[in-house]
């Protein structure tokens, strides 16, 4: 869509499903030429895999969606499974779950995270990701989402301009499976002691919850007239090689990301030492119109030393893991600092916690009740 290409990687595979829990929003100006373009174009999803010790991902299959399907639907949306065909043959690799929705305003995307979290709990072997390109293990499904409210205006305009291209009474798309839960599912194997032999080290299976609901006071760092920011975030999660990317908040100084990730970690003494006096880095970028010209607005550094202090003593860590809620390292606005000038170019509201799966789920329920969960 436009010049935007999104790549998303994940190694989180559960019961044959690859889970991403990401949402991407793209602005589309729906005039006559754009409607004609959608009518005659396909949206292609390429599936990649990379195994150790490969340095470059290898394409293994692809799926295609005619964009006319979206504008033909009564609610201007599509939610269904696409067959993924092997790259060098007709052998099916599995279904790719795709949800694409059009809305009048970015505000209409509220509640999408509920759909994302619920769909991962009920769908067959596939997983959640984003449009265009996907870099991951096989078996993903892809989403570029909307809320179907207030869409009559767009549908009438599309029908008027395209005339006979849009069907008068098309069938409604398959609905996204709803679920009252608005928090991310955490693997059920709560706390695991992984011991290989009596002389080997024991490690704990814990989970890290990272939430970045929104930001404020973003500027481009230029001294003269400030153009609007199109802010998105890149985050490398602990020991993984995966870089997770947020949605793009277009044309605003007060971006809303609703970014949420739950990361499993095996907490050993070696891993604890890596947390000591260390930080997790979130990159804030300004998306520009020209491909490959995005500008780094700054870095947010999240201290991890609190986790080291909390879990280095086995006696204390046992007491902490018996508590109702996890250990919280960050719960505040964090500055976005320009790496070249040292100036602050904005702030992100960040929540970072570590604990057992039960503690993370309890905290997500609490945040959901407070209305602060993305």
Automatic annotation (TrEMBL):
All residue ranges annotated as the C2 domain in the record: 1-80, 188-320
PROSITE patterns noted in UniProt: C2
Residues in the signal sequence: none
Region (Disordered): 115-134
GO cellular component, one term: centriole
Biological process per Gene Ontology, one example term: centriole elongation
Classification via Pfam families: C2
PANTHER family, per the entry: C2 DOMAIN-CONTAINING PROTEIN 3
Protein name: C2 calcium-dependent domain containing 3
Organism: Mustela putorius furo
């Amino acid at each position: 869509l436009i010049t935007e290409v999104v790549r998303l990687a994940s190694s989180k595979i559960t019961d044959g499903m690859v889970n991403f829990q990401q949402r991407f929003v793209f602005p589309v100006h729906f005039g006559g030429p754009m409607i004609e373009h959608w009518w005659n174009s396909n949206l292609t999803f390429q599936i990649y895999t990379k195994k150790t010790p490969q340095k470059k991902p290898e394409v293994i299959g692809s799926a295609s969606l005619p964009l006319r399907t979206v504008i033909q639907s009564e609610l201007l949306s599509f939610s269904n499974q696409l067959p993924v065909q092997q790259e060098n043959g007709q052998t099916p690799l599995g279904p790719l779950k795709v949800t694409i929705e059009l809305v009048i305003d970015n505000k209409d995307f509220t509640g999408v995270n509920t759909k994302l979290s619920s769909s991962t709990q009920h769908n067959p072997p596939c997983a959640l990701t984003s449009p265009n390109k996907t870099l991951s293990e096989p078996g993903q499904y892809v989403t570029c989402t909307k809320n179907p409210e207030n869409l009559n205006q767009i549908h009438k305009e599309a029908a008027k301009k395209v005339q006979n291209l849009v069907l008068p009474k098309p069938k409604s798309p398959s609905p996204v499976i709803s679920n009252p839960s608005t928090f991310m599912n955490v693997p059920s194997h709560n706390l695991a002691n992984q011991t290989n032999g009596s002389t080997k080290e024991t490690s704990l299976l814990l989970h890290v919850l990272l939430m970045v609901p929104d930001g404020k006071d973003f500027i481009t760092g230029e001294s003269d007239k400030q153009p609007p920011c199109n802010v998105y975030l890149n985050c490398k999660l602990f020991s993984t090689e995966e870089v997770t990317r947020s949605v793009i908040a277009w044309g605003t100084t007060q971006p809303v990301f609703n970014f949420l990730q739950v990361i499993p970690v095996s907490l050993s003494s070696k891993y604890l030492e890596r947390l000591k006096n260390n930080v997790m880095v979130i990159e804030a970028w300004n998306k520009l119109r020209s491909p490959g010209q995005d500008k780094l607005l700054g870095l947010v550094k999240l201290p991890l030393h609190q986790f080291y202090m909390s879990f280095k003593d086995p006696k204390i860590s046992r007491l902490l893991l018996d508590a109702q809620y996890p250990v919280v390292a960050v719960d505040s606005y964090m500055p976005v600092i320009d790496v070249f000038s040292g100036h602050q170019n904005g702030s992100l509201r960040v929540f970072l916690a570590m604990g057992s799966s039960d503690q993370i789920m309890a905290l997500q329920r609490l945040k959901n009740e407070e209305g602060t969960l993305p």
